[in-house]
Design goal:
The complex is a heterodimer of chains A (620) and B (270). Chain A is of the alpha+beta class. Chain A contains 17 helices and 23 strands. In chain A, strands 2-1-15-14-13-12-11-10 form an 8-stranded antiparallel sheet, with helices on both faces. With 270 residues, chain B is an all-alpha fold. The chains are: A alpha+beta (620), B mainly alpha (270).
């Protein structure tokens, strides 16, 4: 019995010893794991085996170019620099390289606003016009007050701006208030109803910081964010004049593009953002990491009270009527395996991404000198935070359905000559797959990875606007259901066809002239003029896209001249239409069909110009 | 006095007789092409089957007027009471009708192929199903049937244009066209100045296309708009909307060729 007791006692002691020895190692293993379940070493292996990284010395010309950093609290877990800032001269990306933050700059606005709120200088629910100079907005369509919360949630109702938000010449830059008034877009949605991501709205918030603090936004950010955090290699001013180091480094950096695994050197694209608070910050990876670490720090070094930071990371806009947030005081919430707060950014030369998990203090930042694509902007985030598991928000409520119809992005031009573009970005509901309700207007779409078949989920909300339209809401913007979309698309297609038909009509006219044939039809000159007008109108609308693409927007001169051309085309088509109708009534059977054809094509052109507002160059 | 419609029908009948009743007839070639197209559509992929659409467009005119070209049969119309306008009209109607019948047959056959998916049984488990691969590549925004319709209608509109252009060339200068056809078949054709210009033009388009692919020339925003519009149309109604657009555009070209041929043929010395 004694032996038995002794054996049991020794076994018990051994098990305790085993536990005490093994427990720290298990805990150490736990500590090394990211929310995705990956260990740090596994993460590093995965990063080096990314297809376009592993090919660095291989036959492919293209390799990813940029920098990635991962931290947990004060500890930097991973930094790595990829590719080059100047391939031709073998200058690799390194810790001295600077990248444009793009829209991550907006988080500087939101932090500034929360600092001012903490000081009692701003009320997030008060009309922002109270903080702005009188008569600041010139094109508002709705009387409802626009609050700072509307600006943070991108629900102030502004459509996308038609004017350029980048300038190529430093000398073109104007003071922030003036620059904002120059590009004020039309307010096309009721305040607080539609989410439509707005650079303009965010920059207005930056201007409000200027108005309240009495100093320029750049000075405010330097004094209250960059200097306390010792971010010495980051600039915020539109022309980067506030940091010589950044300006010099930026003027050396090339941008690259992956084009079928060929690396295209886009050269040094040095453009300036006149409404700079929304996207002009530029700096090193280490500075962005310092900033992200401050945001993830529970002691809230950027605020007097840590409660302000907690408030900043509380939800302000939600999926449907659920409690799953998509925006938190201007910070985008991304649901990975854990909930992260951050922002992504893109300029004409760089892209960035930043996400932090305040719970674990883990954060990831990525900066690349490529304007399109790049796995570095997504893969490290998935590897650290893990994909959103389909069952995270419980089982589906049984409300499975296919989305029908077509949905148009609300972050687009609802009015004006760029309206066509909105119709070219439609999303077909059924292409999104099957959506499953998870309660209170929130839905999930389960996606299966093609490579390993692993399932992940994407969230979206459903809401109904005051005009009865259904919309799907995502953080970037709502997608509203469009009635008779196919009819409208067909009108656009037919309009383009009338333009192409115009080429043939003109060719036939020339041919007949060459063969010295007189037109057998009365009013044939008017028919030819109508066809020519359709063609000119088509060329003018395509020119809108060419100018927009070359300049990231349209100048007043371009807008006005293209609008006037469309008005002339509209008038010519209208006269040609009337002529065709009159001649149809007079003509015999054989010729009538030609007049009908002419009348219909002119009518299509008129309807398209009017419906798509191709003539409208004012107040957009 | 025969009506206009009767006259047109008579000319078409005469053309059918000429087409069939000669040892120089190329009807067998045309029929064989259609059969080959259908077989490849069933055995390889319906998208491969659509290749025949423009092949037929290029074959119709030499097939139908082969005998006439060799025997200088067009002189006949200089002496019989047929107006030149009627002749041009009848030939455009005849060729277009034959083309449409051939295309409808091919389209229906390809739809059956798409439904039965015989080609997936020949090639293991659909791993080489081109239509499905493209559909997956576009993240299912375009269904396999939608993509098939896109390829079919693009190919068919190109074929219709080829046919219209061939007929216009034949009616404008049948001797030259016959000579070109003969030399193209025999492979000893001498290059005229016009051919050199055409060659350079085609080569330039090819170079531009390659430069676009390599990214040396960036696709301009205007092209992107047109491509996006085509893509949106291809999503709607499984590509049939886009099919309608392609058809109308090809018909514009057909009308242009018809009027051009009419103007040239009426002044031609037969």
């Amino acid at each position: 019995m004694k032996n038995m007791i002794r054996k049991l006692a020794s076994a018990f002691c051994a098990s305790i010893m085993l536990f005490t020895v093994s427990a720290p190692s298990v805990m150490a293993e736990d500590e090394e794991k990211f929310p995705s379940g990956l260990k740090q070493s596994e993460f590093e292996n995965e990063m080096t085996s990314l297809p376009n990284i592993a090919n660095e010395n291989d036959s492919f010309d293209y390799t990813e170019s940029g920098a990635v950093g991962v931290f947990r609290g004060d500890e930097i877990l991973y930094t790595h620099y990829f590719g080059s800032t100047d391939r031709a001269n073998n200058k690799a990306v390194d810790s001295d390289s600077v990248f444009e933050w793009g829209s991550i700059s907006k988080t500087l606005i939101w932090v500034s606003v929360m600092q001012l709120k903490e000081q009692g200088k701003i009320d997030l629910d008060r009309d922002v016009r109270e903080y702005l100079p009188e008569g600041f907005f010139q094109h508002l369509s709705y009387d409802e007050p626009i609050t700072m919360m509307n600006l943070m949630n991108h629900t102030a109702g502004w459509q996308e701006s038609t004017y350029p938000i980048f300038a190529t010449d430093k000398n073109e830059l104007k003071p922030l208030g003036e620059a904002l008034q120059d590009i004020e877009p039309a307010q096309t949605y009721p305040v607080g109803e539609v989410t439509a991501y707005s650079n303009y709205g965010a920059a207005v918030a930056g201007y409000i910081v200027e108005c309240i603090s009495g100093m320029s936004f750049a000075d405010y950010v330097h004094k209250n964010i960059f200097e306390p955090l010792k971010m010495e290699h980051t600039s915020i001013a539109a022309d980067r004049s506030d940091n010589r180091y950044v300006a010099d480094k930026r003027s050396e950096m090339h941008s690259y593009q992956n084009y079928f695994y060929n690396c295209i050197d886009l050269g040094i694209i040095d453009k300036y953002c006149p409404i700079y608070p929304c996207g002009a910050a530029t700096g090193t990876l280490s500075d962005l990491m310092t900033y992200a670490q401050a945001l993830a720090d529970k002691d809230a070094p950027l605020f007097q009270h840590k409660e302000t930071q907690d408030e900043m990371f509380s939800g302000t806009l939600f999926y449907g009527d659920s409690d799953i947030p998509m925006w938190a005081h201007g910070f985008v919430i991304t649901e990975y395996n854990v909930r992260t707060y951050g922002h992504s950014g893109a300029t004409v030369s760089c892209q960035t991404n930043m996400a932090i998990d305040p719970e674990s203090g883990i954060g990831v930042v990525a900066m690349v000198n490529e304007p399109d694509g790049n796995e570095l902007l997504s893969k490290p985030f998935e590897l650290v935070f893990g994909n959103l598991s389909p069952d995270k928000y419980g089982n589906a409520d049984g409300n499975k359905s296919e989305l029908n119809g077509y949905y148009l992005p609300q972050r687009s031009l609802k009015e004006g000559m760029g309206k066509i573009n909105r119709y070219l970005q439609a999303v077909k509901g059924s292409n999104l797959g099957e959506v499953e309700g998870i309660g209170n207007g929130a839905y999930r779409i389960v996606q299966k990875a093609q490579m390993d078949g692993e399932e992940s989920a994407m969230l979206l909300g459903k809401k109904r606007y005051s005009d009865g339209k259904t919309a799907l809401s995502l953080p970037s913007c709502d997608y509203a259901e469009e009635n008779f979309y196919l009819v409208k698309l067909m009108l656009l297609a037919m309009y383009m066809l009338t333009g192409i038909g115009g080429i043939y009509v003109l060719l036939i006219s020339i041919k007949m002239k060459n063969h010295k044939r007189k037109a057998a039809l009365a009013g044939s000159r008017m028919m030819t003029a109508g066809s020519a007008a359709s063609l000119v109108s088509l060329i003018a609308i395509l020119a809108v896209f060419v100018f927009f693409n070359n300049n990231d927007g349209l100048t007043d001169l371009q807008l006005t001249s293209l609008g006037i051309i469309q008005i002339i085309c509209l008038a010519v088509c209208a006269v040609a239409f009337v002529s065709a109708v009159v001649n149809t009534m007079k003509a015999g059977d054989k010729k009538r069909i030609l007049y009908i054809f002419s009348g219909v094509s002119n009518a299509i052109c008129i309807c398209a110009i009017l419906y798509y507002q191709m003539y409208r160059f004012w107040n957009i | 006095m025969k009506s206009y419609r009767q006259k047109i029908m008579d000319i078409i009948k005469a053309d059918i007789i000429t087409m069939n009743g000669s040892k120089n007839s190329m009807t067998t070639t045309l029929v064989m092409s259609i059969i080959m197209t259908i077989v490849s559509g069933f055995c390889i992929n319906p998208a491969a089957g659509t290749m025949g659409c423009f092949m037929i467009g290029g074959l119709i005119v030499p097939t139908m007027f082969n005998s006439e070209m060799k025997n200088h049969g067009e002189r006949l119309y200089g002496i019989i009471p047929v107006e030149r306008k009627e002749l041009v009209t009848s030939r455009f109607i005849f060729c277009t009708a034959v083309f449409f019948i051939a295309e409808i047959v091919i389209y229906l056959m390809m739809l059956i192929s798409l439904k039965t998916q015989l080609y997936n049984r020949i090639f293991e488990n659909g791993e080489l199903d081109f239509l499905k691969i493209v559909s997956d590549m576009t993240e299912n925004r375009m269904s396999p049937k939608g993509f098939f319709n896109l390829v079919y209608f693009a190919s068919y509109s190109f074929g219709l244009k080829m046919m219209a252009w061939s007929l216009r060339s034949y009616l404008s200068d049948s001797k030259k066209y016959a000579q070109q056809m003969m030399e193209a078949t025999m492979g000893n054709r001498k290059m005229s100045k016009k051919d050199v210009i055409t060659g350079v033009f085609v080569l330039a388009i090819l170079v531009i296309f390659i430069l676009l692919l390599l990214g040396v020339i960036k696709i301009t925003a205007a092209i992107a708009v047109v491509v996006t519009l085509l893509f949106q149309l291809a999503q709607a109604a499984n590509g049939l909307f886009l099919g309608l657009i392609f058809t109308i555009e090809a018909l514009f070209f057909l009308i242009y060729c018809y009027i051009s041929a009419l103007l040239t043929y009426e002044e031609k010395d037969i």
